Amino acid sequence: MQSRRTIAAAPRGHQGPGRQARVESRAASRECRTRRGPGSAAPLRDLLSLPDSWLVWSLADRAVARPLARDRLALIGDAGHPMLPYLAQGAALAIEDAAVLTRALADNADVPAALAAYSGARTARVRRVQKAARSNGRTYHAGGVVAFLRNAVMARLGPDGMRDRYAWLYGWTPPA
């Protein structure tokens, strides 16, 4: 029988943009992954008990590369703008990058100029997404009164309100 392993991300001391962060990977003890289990719903406890082992690692936050492109080299996705996972947009932004880069190269035979256009077109958006992801991380991991207020606001907004709050994110369209 094949061993099952689940990987879990856990924030470990926020490292602001541009700061060095030590990224660790370690095995998570059974106690670590089930300590919140007793008060959790049975399906969640069952899910947490399925893997034979878990890995826990630190999340590292980095600023957008300046610039995203230079000469004949362009960075896309996490290579140019790693994302904290609190908006689940890392892969989506890499796809957006590819669409913008493709358009820039199609519109300009001068590759360095096309890459500069790509960099200029992407920087503000990816910074905004990074900022929103950082904010969500702080909000989602808050406790006490802040957690109570977060829960009340999210309940009041409901699914449609939460979606509409990010219309700027989910409504992106590639350049024509």
Describe the structure.
There is one protein chain. The protein is mainly α and about 180 residues long. It is about 50% helix and about 10% strand. It contains 6 helices and 5 strands. It has helices at about 30-35, 40-50, 90-105, 110-140, 145-165, 165-170, and strands spanning about 5-10, 25-30, 55, 70, 75. Strands 1-3-2 form a 3-stranded mixed sheet. A two-stranded antiparallel ribbon has the order 4-5. Helix 3 packs antiparallel against helix 4. The longest helix is centred in the last third of the chain and has 30 residues, at about 110-140. The model is unreliable at about 1-25 (pLDDT under 50).
Structural class: mainly alpha
Radius of gyration: 20 Å
The low-confidence parts are: 1-23
Tell me the strand percentage band. Answer: 5-15%
- For the secondary structure, the number of strands is 5
Quote the distance from N terminus to C terminus. Answer: 51 Å
Bin the helical content.
40-55%
The overall average pLDDT, rounded, is 82
Task: Based on the model shown, name its key terms.
mainly alpha, 49% helix, disordered N terminus, 176 residues, 6 helices
Show the helix and strand layout.
Layout lengths: L4 E5 L15 E4 L1 H5 L7 H8 L3 E5 L11 E2 L2 E2 L15 H18 L3 H30 L3 H22 L1 H4 L6
Parallel strand pairs: 1-3
Antiparallel strand pairs: 2-3, 4-5
Helix pairs in contact: 3-4
